[in-house]
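Fold this sequence, please.
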Amino acid sequence: MSEDRWNTVLVLGGIRSGKSAFAESLVADAPSVRYVATAVGGEDDPEWLARIEAHQRRRPQSWSTEETGADPARLTELLIEAEPDETLLVDDLGGWIAAVLNPARQPNDDEADVAALAEAVRATRARVVLVSPEVGLSLVPVTPVGRAFTDALGVTNQALAGACDGVALVVAGQATWLKREVPAPREPQPTPAVVSPPPVEQPAPTVVAPQPVETPAAPLATVLSERTMTLPLVASGLTEIAPGMDLPLPSSDAGPDARERLGTIDLPGAGLGAFGEAVEFAAATQDTTTPRPWTAVRLVLIAGNHGGGAAAGADEADIERRLAEAEQGAGLLGRLAGEAGADISVLRVSAAGAIEDGPVTSDDTVSAGLREGWRLADDAADAGRDAILLAGLGAGLEAVATAVLAATTGAEPVAMLPRVLVPGGRYDDDAWMVRCAAIRDALHRIHQEPRGATDILRELGGPDVAVATGVLLGAAARRLPVLLDGPLGIAAGLVARDFASQTRHWCLLPEAGTLALVRQGADVLGLTPVLRTGLDLGEGANALAVLPALRTAIGLASALPVHPAMLGEQSVDDDVVV
């Protein structure tokens, strides 16, 4: 969940601590962000340039960048000039100090520069996140220049920590809040209206009677086999889907308030543990401190194959068998859906080309896929569903999701790509190497190409990722939570943030699973898995398996009253106040 109770935050951390990624997660709810880059020099340092490029790839397309390395005073000016509806991310103050101490600027009153920056932070009307290296735990440098830099940065960190509403320290990717102050309310800003695409005439979905399954605990879910045809599907006339869309956000108060309430409810033990993440998510998306469990979940299963090396080792006949079972309400997904009281909506999309050879689909198909995904979310909301479970099924999907992750975040594909498991528990390492080569060639092919959302979908993602991205956008527009489960949802989430960064706040990862690419992608999106049971049942099945437990936890959190002892303490406190 996003922390929205601050105007200015200082994020501290050591080298490779994850401080920049955490800072980016704090501003992910903003429609647009002005990224203030302070680095100076490094033109002849390939390793330094590679670091900068990795940061640039991680930024959504809707962000703008401003360089202040040549003129450190410009940072103070930006903070003073910023409007109330702006969001600034300054990364980082180490670069700013290096520019302030530049011999070309000496003699200069460096302390005055720091004081002016701190005052600008106090006075700014914008939301601002500043990233800075924490130098207090390191050894004292042995050179005069090193000591001057460390001293200046330490003084700057102290000055800005006093000026900011919040201060967070990031160590090994884990953030700890050192200071959290709720600022005085700012002038309210008008909330732009969100216009959902108007309905398009479509044939009624075919309702397929479920196959009998031995699940005495619950009846098998109704299975909706919708639009099992190829894209493009959607007629013209829908609202344009473009980068920088301003979609709704969940409540910034209800989630934290619900989490705080968990510490007061009448339980004999210490509480709900990791399930608190699901309770907080449900509370925020429902705008209440006592959320109701999801009772009408729709599994949206998007099926599309990918060509070339990405599909090496895939058994397309087996994939088709599993897909047919899902359409009939049978097999693993059908059984789990029945036990969880969910229904299944299956969409088959056209196959994508080989990522190593060229664009895998056309711009028109990307546009149609986005619109069709939005329509699927609209259909779920109109049918009274209170949550969507997004999953994919198709040859080459894991490799394509890995390529999308690498292209958008700079992750190392070899470390993220899952091994190829074949029936009998055997791994096909030859097929895995072919997939690695395909991803390598694809990333090399688009090295100089734009990395916007539509570019990634056209060059790498294909129709299935486009549809999944549209589902996330449409769900956010309809204030409908989405449970992600597997590579497709993660890839779509990484692409969707360029269209509307608010989408990730409507997403929950119920189970971490075993795939590194899912864990890494979720970390970039700021999603904390609710459970880490190590399930590896396939896309959709992991979340369906744990869904009853999530519902139980949310129901308990809402139904149980406050512990009598807490009521007594509250009563005493009230008497004191009076």
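The two ends are 35 Å apart (CA to CA). Confidence is low (pLDDT under 50) at residues 184-238, 571-578.
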